[in-house]
Write a structure and sequence with these properties.
With 174 residues, the chain is mainly α. Helices cover 80% and strands 0% of the residues.
């Protein structure tokens, strides 16, 4: 199978890390915004923070998550790191797919609904138990998603069980 040149592999790695950084940063910002939503001083501000959250989700987080996934697949297929041979890549792939599917089919629609309700009902939603439950789901999932991406970054750095690492250890190569 064809592998990438060293230069193209570095470009791919930079793109992958950049996309992962955007995804991670977006989640952290959304988590902070969700904590601040109940402290909104007016209905306009209340809607504004929801709208900002939606914009971050659709315009930054979603493309970054997809780019992370795509560059990760290319990296796993066209470099020495093969998915079939490395458990750490399988774990990263599973985490990424799970997070993208949950975000796309469950959380993004929930966030859009909350933003629409914030525009229509304003701060009155802060006394609605259903809205508060949805806000807690979005807030906690942002944190859990962020933590899982940090786990993926740690796995990527340490590469536990990688064939290359085991070869170097067994042959006493630094």
């Amino acid at each position: 199978m064809t592998t990438l040149s060293e230069k193209n592999e570095k470009i791919l790695k930079i793109t992958h890390v950049f996309a992962m950084s955007l995804w991670t940063g977006s989640l952290f910002i959304m988590f902070v915004i969700n904590i601040l939503i109940p402290k909104s001083p007016s209905s306009d501000a209340f809607y504004f923070v929801h709208d900002i959250n939606s914009i971050i989700d659709l315009q930054i987080l979603t493309p970054a998550a997809i780019l992370t996934f795509l560059t990760g697949v290319v990296y796993a297929v066209f470099t020495k790191w093969k998915v079939k041979e490395n458990l750490w890549l399988k774990i990263k792939l599973a985490i990424t797919i799970l997070l993208i599917l949950m975000g796309t089919f469950w959380l993004a629609p929930l966030l859009m609904e909350m933003t629409g309700n914030a525009k229509e009902y304003g701060m009155g939603l802060l006394s609605d138990a259903g809205y508060l439950f949805d806000l807690s789901i979005i807030t906690w999932f942002s944190l859990v998603n962020w933590l899982l991406i940090i786990v993926a970054i740690v796995i990527s750095t340490l590469k536990p069980g990688s064939k290359d690492k085991l070869y170097r250890i067994n042959n006493k190569i630094p």
